[in-house]
């Protein structure tokens, strides 16, 4: 049986107070907890990201909750030049872009659900921080 994990608001506030770094990254300590499979979520930061890799998760949905800033998402449509991501046993695909997708801007307080199998990507010209929750397919 897995252990319960409590993350206090103070810890979240400390993470959100970090100075942004250019690019995409999962913020600690959430990243370590996520990678060790202790939690199914993390806080993703996009800072000055003008280009992104498109992706598809075959067996898990993404639930995005905007915490700070704005991120532009493209979802749906088709992956352009898809490939199988290394080490994923063909459960995840990457792609150069998305053709025919829907564009939306995710802001603080917004929630975006992307079902398993849907192509998606996100960018931000400034800084966006988002809670990402991975939901296994039932």
From TrEMBL:
It comes from Candidatus Giovannonibacteria bacterium RIFCSPHIGHO2_01_FULL_45_23. InterPro entries: RmlC-like_jellyroll, RmlC_Cupin_sf. It comes from the Bacteria. This is Cupin 2 conserved barrel domain-containing protein.
């Amino acid at each position: 049986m897995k252990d319960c994990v409590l993350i206090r608001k103070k810890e979240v506030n400390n993470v959100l107070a970090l100075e942004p770094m250019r690019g995409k990254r999962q913020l600690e300590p959430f990243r370590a907890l996520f990678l060790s499979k202790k939690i199914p979520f993390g806080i993703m930061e996009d800072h000055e990201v003008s280009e992104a890799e498109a992706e598809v998760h075959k067996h898990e949905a993404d639930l995005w909750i905007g915490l700070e800033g704005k991120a532009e998402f493209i979802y749906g449509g088709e992956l352009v030049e898809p490939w199988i991501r290394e080490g994923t046993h063909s459960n995840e695909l990457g792609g150069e872009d998305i053709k025919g997708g829907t564009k939306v801007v995710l802001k603080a307080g917004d929630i975006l659900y992307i079902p398993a199998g849907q192509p998606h990507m996100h960018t931000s010209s400034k800084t966006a921080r988002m809670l990402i929750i991975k939901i296994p397919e039932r």
